[in-house]
Amino acid sequence: MPLVIKRLRDPDTNPCLSESDASTRCMDENNYNREQCSSYFLKYKNCRRFWNSIMVERRQNGVKPVMPTATERAEILGAMGTMPY
């Protein structure tokens, strides 16, 4: 598997892997009719926006790595109580 694809499929580097898979699955099931999958696309977009804001905040505070690992993300989401996206 190419390195780029491995990185996109890695849960430590891609926080929105489940949302991405759900939107792809929806497209497959609905013969690539984008209108029927718009809610999945919106959820993925909101996920990317949320984690991007976390990355910007961590970068400004000098925290490394800028993208939290999967375990750190689980702790962040657990502390929030509900999914922010």
UniProtKB/TrEMBL annotation:
Signal peptide range: none
Protein name listed in UniProt: Coiled-coil-helix-coiled-coil-helix domain-containing protein 7
Keywords, in A-Z order: Disulfide bond, Mitochondrion
Family statement drawn from the similarity comment of this UniProt entry: Belongs to the CHCHD7 family.
Cell compartment(s), UniProt: Mitochondrion intermembrane space
One of the record's GO cellular component terms: mitochondrial intermembrane space
Main location class: mitochondrion
Gene name in the database record: LOC105742236
Pfam family, one: COX6B
Gene Ontology biological-process annotations: mitochondrial respiratory chain complex assembly
UniProt organism field: Octodon degus
